[in-house]
Batch of 2 targets.
Target 1
Amino acid sequence: MNTKDAYEICHTIIKQHSKTFAKAFSTLPQKKRQAVWAIYAFCRTVDDIVDEGQSPSSELEQFEDQFNRFIRKELPLTDPKWIALDDVFQRFDMDATPFFDMIKGQRMDLYVKRYETLEEVEQYSYHVASTVGLMLLPVLAPSNHQQLHNSAIALGKAMQLTNILRDIGEDLNRDRVYLPKAVMDAYGVAEKDLLIGEQGTAFINMWEHIAARAENFYQEAFIDMHLYPVDARLPVQGAGMMYRAILKAVRLNQYNVFSQKSFVTKGEKEMILNELKA
């Protein structure tokens, strides 16, 4: 299979699973855009193994072994996802570390279902979300990606904390609680309160405590946005601001994170992008 066809298969994967992500990066120049598709396809494969695999632990181990062989240039390039990613590694100054770190983060989801401290949750957030930003950095900012390292980590943590705050009910249904026990204890919120969908003052104050941490990470990330090349600035900042708006959407839904999913409307997304373009 040629590289062009391999990229198109990755493009299909991103369009199927994340229209928002596909749209956010659709304005990039072709080579950068294709690289985003290939990186997304890698991340999606890891996600699917954990969420849908018959034997996720051994499948993840096999996939990590494949990636190890890919890095050592020992893997036969027959799968279109590897063909496309190989082209990305040839074209850009890629670092394998965040790819391995992401696999480690997804493995955490197989074994860890509760977290004690906010610091532990932030470490998890680095592994499953900041790593994606670090994978994309050499593509989005080829000449100065090292300068944006901390900003990308902060944005990933902000977005993952936002996910956690939005998906409390959904995660409970999968027997997962990402809210740190130490913060819940500090505000007098018990897991049994979450199970009955308690949205009282204690819960709201606890939720806002974690939201404030997410806001700090967004601010830290946005300080360095001017360092991105012009073609990447709008997609990255736009994605960050759309995610940040989810926190506002939860507040507008009276903090009901148990029986409804808060989202940012298409109109609000357009407004955010228009403000950035102005």
Note: Residues 143-277 form a domain with the Farnesyl Diphosphate Synthase fold (CATH 1.10.600.10).
Target 2
Amino acid sequence: MNVEAPRRPSLTQEEAFARIRLLRSPHIGPVSYRQLLRRFGTAAAALDALPDLAGRGTRTYRAAPADVVEREVEGVRRAGARYLFHDQADYPPMLAQTENAPPILTMRGHIALAAAPCVALVGARNASAAAVKLARDFGGELAEAGFTVVSGLARGIDGGAHQGALAAGKGGNGGGTIGVIASGIDITYPPQHRDLQEEVATRGLLLAEEVPGTEPRGNLFPKRNRIIAGLSLGTLVVEAAPQSGSLITARLAGEMGREVMAIPGSPLEPRSEGCNRLIREGAVLVHSPADVVELLSRFDGTPRSTFREAAPGWQAVDDELADEPADIAGLLTTAPVPVDELVRQSGAASGAVQLALLELELAGRLVRHAGGRVSLNS
């Protein structure tokens, strides 16, 4: 076993391994992971406590097997990657502000790019040639202006955005780009972007949330999109059909309180319908990279775009988990409800409600939603 130790001296290799194992254990998500670390101090102690916590939910619980995690660590090492933990000094600062920030990422490349002002450029996979050129031009000019260009390494708009940013860097000015993939750090998708992904990983930054060896699946792309939006001050959609996944990224950016921008297109072109709809619903219309630079250079946390009402501001759970859970089972249904509403209606302490939710989550009965909302698993 050889976990590359994070730069925080307090995190030993043994604790790093325990954190990976904790996050890979059944029904552990970003919120429950942080709650357990806060309650028990270390991942090793949290792992020891899991069977008892889950046992209150009448289910036998087994944490992720150590040998499975050892194989994962070896896979990261073989890929030439390293782990990045949520409380590490160089964890991306904008991403850390989001509700469901991944507690652990794997990365290759230059992590300092994530600390620079970032802008997401996304759009259709089956984009028109004109739109791909536009994405390439925007990517290049934004990189030259000092922004890190973030995208998902998909065909079409994503590829053009990365290529433009990388080309700008060859002249010695800017050129920063981050590729966020919906697979393991060792998987290339689509296959025709093998060279591009490798160039992003060596000259820019490549990030993955999934375990090495994980092939991309449909449900992993929205997870990937939340990271793209979370890294960035704003998201620019270049071209998108009404059902484009890039609209998910735009919606997530809006919920995070980030800027949402779109380039308008002809009403006769179906691939422009998504962008035109975004603008109609409150996204900022932009014509040039200078528009994006002007908008994001002045971004103070209050977006000019009104696309989607921002979800309630997320705050880390400061309350310690109580010793006994609150009785909230009768208040929950499959309809999402804010956690603070459960606290209000139950009359119980916040820590007792959080413990009850954690036990339900470990038992596989709870689903956490954006904006600090929860529901029973349907």
Note: Residues 1-9, 311-318 have pLDDT under 50 and may be disordered.
